[in-house]
Amino acid sequence: MRSYAFERPGTVTDAVRRAGSGSAFLAGGTTLVDLMKLEVMTPDRVLDINRLPLRGLDTTGGGLRIGALERMSDVAADPRVRRAYPVLGQALDLSASGQLRTMASIGGNLLQRTRCGYFRDVSTPCNKRLPGSGCPAIGGENRTHAVLGASGSCAATHPSDLAVALVALDAKVRLQGREGARTVDLRDFYLLPGDTPHLEHDLRPGELVTEVVVPALPWARRSTYVKIRDRRSFEFALSSAAVAVRLDGDTIVEARVAVGGMGTRPWRLTAVERALVGRRATEETYVAAAATAVEGTRPLRHNAYKPELMKRTLVRALLELEQTR
């Protein structure tokens, strides 16, 4: 790990004022410190933001507002989250390990970097780490890589379980920078790699995530998160699905569907949603709708299994909702 300056700003305004091109914000540190040790990230200034007033969980406005510094374990355990948005609690429960969830912040989880082995190995090229150096994953080991949204420059998957659930629920992020505050749809916040995979999100220089806002969706009580991985704990998704469905009798009248482990960002499946709406809530409907998920997939040499796994994950998640009727 290289030397760096360490500062503790006392206000959000002070934090964004001090932030520069060579600085990094520190919350739980579960990603940043790890990558600094590997010298994947080498900031010359680290700004500890844990003293900032960015905590709290509020449901009084009809939706859900989560402060960016709230810890993952606290949000997952909150009865308001478990009751009104079970998909969020489940996605958090299935993230990382219990120890890490007590440290990691909500904002930090949304901004965590990819787990691609080439990105984390400074002895190999990586366009995310060093633009223009190449992407060994395209022709190399790519079993865990993306089949949606990849380009010739990058096929790394997005690692956050929480982000998948939030994208399914039309969540937004509040950002604070030198030019003031703004709100961005989380679905649009993450950028496709294209020719610039080092630009991962719509976060301007010095900007800070301050809050996550989830709209009021009373029927999101019928939601779930399913995660498929190589081992049962502390492992990132090969495939995951966040689904929420509103029924009128046996008929699906509204649906939200997103997947993880498949794309270079959390992937909303609007075609699957359309295929569900207006149909009876049956396994036959789920299988037919899930078949539309593979449109546009581009498997690599070692991950051709992923489109079929995505379909099966979606069907499993939808069938699990049958238990909540």
From TrEMBL:
PROSITE patterns listed in its UniProt record: FAD_PCMH
Coiled coil: none
This protein's record includes keyword Metal-binding: no
InterPro entries listed in its UniProt record: CO_DH_flav_C (IPR005107), CO_DH_flav_C_dom_sf (IPR036683), Diverse_Substr_Oxidored (IPR051312), FAD-bd_PCMH (IPR016166), FAD-bd_PCMH-like_sf (IPR036318), FAD-bd_PCMH_sub1 (IPR016167), FAD-bd_PCMH_sub2 (IPR016169), Mopterin_DH_FAD-bd (IPR002346)
Keyword line: Oxidoreductase
One Pfam family it belongs to: FAD_binding_5
Entry annotated with the keyword Oxidoreductase: yes
Lineage top rank: taxon: Bacteria
FAD-binding PCMH-type domain ranges (all copies): 1-219
GO molecular function: FAD binding; oxidoreductase activity
SUPFAM superfamilies registered for this protein in UniProt: CO dehydrogenase flavoprotein C-terminal domain-like, FAD-binding/transporter-associated domain-like
Protein name: Xanthine dehydrogenase family protein subunit M
Species name: Umezawaea endophytica
